Structure formats: structure tokens, C-alpha cells
């Protein structure tokens, strides 16, 4: 038990990698329960997750809300609620026009009347049985779930919040950074040894947070494109040895899309590992890949089993391949399958 606690904390705060990568439950055990719900987080912890992940957007009254996106038409029952029909609108989020219902147009009290539903029913029809059962969570409620589970299990359960679209939220009068630093302080998550890792695809928020808090920070990196706040600085440039050295000045982790570590060929099969893990470790960064999912649609060709895109393939073997490639942690929708050692 003590060893498990020490291992989890060591990976979060910066000591060398261990044979078994840290398991970060991506929005909970979201392969088996609707994402970002209490049921998903509790199941993930039961399955041995070391860390649970909430995506954070904001309500109209400035509360951090646990949703995949600020558009909530696909993850709640808001479309079925006639009292909110007039809130449907079209907005431009990070350069894309999106139509739906947005958290920033609702107070926390209004959001709390909504109920979660499965975001990917075509892949996870079994999760639809849980639609309508759970309310939307706030960040402090997710932290409370982790703390209660830590006390109950004797394991340290960390939390890995992702700040979604901070440039957008700042532009509409809901700046995230001040509010988030205040939230960390209120929750007592302020030291370098706090069981928390803060993620973001944007660069500026992480740079500024690194000057205001000692908690570990993770730079998310996609296989294509650029950070919304640094469009002239591509993710490809950021993962060069020079880019990684610059990243290490403000971040503790790099969180690359998984194909940046195990690339795929034209037939969709994995090839030899890239140099990213070695280069990141040389720069002093730990590596967490995203996102391991069991469905064939998300697996490389050699790991697929059965004929259907929603059939489950060999995710456990894929997780083991990332462990062999030296990653320090994995984001996964299926924590039980990700335990590769």
C-alpha cells in the first residue's frame, strides 16, 4: 500500500519512470460509464486508476464545470428541456462554428438540473443505459471524489484537470487562470507534491501558471496543428529537441497524441517508436500519451479484433507497447485494460 502511494506521487512530481506507467482515467472509466460522471470516476478508481481526469469549462457565474466541451448538447439532456430551447445558438470556438448549448450561457444552478448522457453511443451502446442518471459535476466535486477514495482505499488518487479553451473564455469575460489559481488555493492543491497535474493544449496559460503555482503542468500536443494561442508555433515544432527544451522551462510533462510515440504506416499498423520519449526525457519532461481506447476504431490495424468498428480489440497489448516505449503514464477510457504489467 505504501509503495503504491509513493509510486503514484513520484510519477506526478518528477522522479524517474517505473515499469508500470501511471494510469490516468480519461474522464473516468468512460468506456463503461458516461464520461465525467461520478459513476465513471468511481468505477475507474475501483479498476485501479492512479489519477482521474476532469475537463474544465466555465458556467456563466464563473464556476468550473466538468464537461468534455463547453457545448453540452451531446453530453447532457439539454436538448430535451423546453425551458432551455431558446439558449441554442451558434458560436465560433477555436476557429470552428459550433451549434448547440454552451455552459457559459447557464448558471451553475441551471446546469445542475441537467443530466449526463453518453457522448459516443455508436461505440458504447451499453453506456446509454446510464443516460439521465447523473448530474453535472464541478471541479471541487471531482477533487472530493478523489480524496474520499484515497481515504477509503489507502491509495493516493490524483486529479488531472484540463483547462479547455482558455483563450476563448478570456475573450468572453470569463478568464480561467485567476479563477483556477484561486480554486487550487481553496482546495489546498498548491505545492509541487500536490496530487494534481494541470493540462492544456494552449501554451500561454501554462507559462503563466508556472509562475503562480508549483503544481505539475502538462503541455498537451496534437499530431497536427498548433496551439490556439500560438498559431505560428506548430505542435511539430514543439516536439523537436529544441522545442522540448523550451517546453521544459514551464511544464513538467508533455502529453502527446499517441501516434506521435508509436507512429502508424499507410495501412494503419504501428511502426518503430519515434524519438519523442527519449528526447522528452532528455529535456527533463515526463510523457503521458492520449488516449487508449478498446474499440477497433481507435486501435492500430494489428490490434483490431472482430469485424465491427465498435468491437473491442487488443488494447491491453497496445498499452504494453507504450510501456515498452518508455512512457511514464497513459490516458485511457478503460483503466482495467491499461494495467499492462
TrEMBL record:
Using the record, list the residue span of the signal peptide; answer none if the entry has no such feature: 1-19
Catalytic EC class: hydrolase
Gene3D superfamilies in the cross-refs: Phosphatidylinositol (PI) phosphodiesterase
Task: List, alphabetically, the InterPro entries matched.
Answer: GP_PDE_dom, PLC-like_Pdiesterase_TIM-brl
Q: What is its EC number?
A: 3.1.4.46
Q: Does the keyword Transit peptide apply?
A: no
**Per its UniProt entry, which superkingdom is the organism in?**
Bacteria
Q: Which residues form the GP-PDE domain?
A: 21-341
* Family in the record: Belongs to the glycerophosphoryl diester phosphodiesterase family.
Question: What name does this protein carry?
Answer: glycerophosphodiester phosphodiesterase
Amino acid at each position: 500500500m505504501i509503495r503504491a502511494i509513493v509510486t503514484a506521487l513520484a510519477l506526478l512530481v518528477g522522479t524517474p519512470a517505473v515499469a508500470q506507467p501511471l494510469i490516468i482515467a480519461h474522464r473516468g472509466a468512460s468506456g463503461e460509464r458516461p464520461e465525467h460522471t461520478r459513476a465513471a470516476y468511481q468505477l475507474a478508481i475501483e479498476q485501479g486508476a492512479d489519477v482521474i481526469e476532469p475537463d474544465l469549462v466555465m458556467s456563466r457565474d464563473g464556476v468550473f464545470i466538468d464537461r468534455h466541451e463547453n457545448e453540452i448538447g451531446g453530453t447532457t439532456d439539454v436538448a430535451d428541456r423546453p425551458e432551455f430551447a431558446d439558449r441554442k445558438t451558434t458560436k465560433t470556438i477555436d476557429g470552428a462554428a459550433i451549434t448547440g448549448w454552451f455552459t457559459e450561457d447557464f448558471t451553475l444552478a441551471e446546469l445542475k438540473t441537467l443530466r449526463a448522457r453518453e457522448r459516443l453511443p455508436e461505440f458504447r451502446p451499453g453506456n446509454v443505459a446510464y443516460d439521465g442518471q447523473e448530474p453535472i459535476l464541478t471541479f471541487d466535486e471531482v477533487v472530493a471524489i478523489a480524496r474520499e477514495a484515497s481515504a477509503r482505499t489507502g491509495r493516493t488518487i490524483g486529479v488531472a484537470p484540463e483547462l479547455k479553451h482558455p483563450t476563448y473564455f478570456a475573450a468572453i469575460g470569463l478568464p480561467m487562470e485567476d479563477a483556477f489559481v484561486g480554486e487550487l488555493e481553496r482546495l489546498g492543491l498548491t505545492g509541487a507534491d500536490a496530487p494534481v497535474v494541470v493540462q492544456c493544449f494552449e501554451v500561454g496559460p501554462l507559462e503563466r501558471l508556472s509562475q503562480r503555482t508549483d503544481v505539475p503542468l502538462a503541455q498537451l500536443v496534437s499530431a497536427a496543428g498548433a496551439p490556439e494561442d500560438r498559431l505560428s508555433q506548430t505542435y511539430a515544432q514543439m516536439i523537436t529537441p529544441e522545442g522540448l527544451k523550451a517546453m521544459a522551462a514551464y511544464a513538467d510533462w508533455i502529453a502527446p497524441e499517441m501516434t506521435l510515440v508509436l507512429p502508424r504506416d499507410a495501412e494503419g499498423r504501428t511502426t518503430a517508436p519515434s524519438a519523442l520519449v527519449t528526447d522528452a526525457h532528455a529535456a527533463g519532461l515526463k510523457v503521458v500519451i492520449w488516449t487508449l481506447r478498446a474499440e477497433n476504431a481507435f486501435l492500430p490495424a494489428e490490434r483490431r479484433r472482430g469485424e465491427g468498428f465498435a468491437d473491442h480489440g487488443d488494447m491491453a497489448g497496445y498499452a504494453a507497447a507504450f510501456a515498452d516505449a518508455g512512457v511514464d503514464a497513459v490516458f485511457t477510457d478503460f483503466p482495467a485494460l491499461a494495467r499492462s504489467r
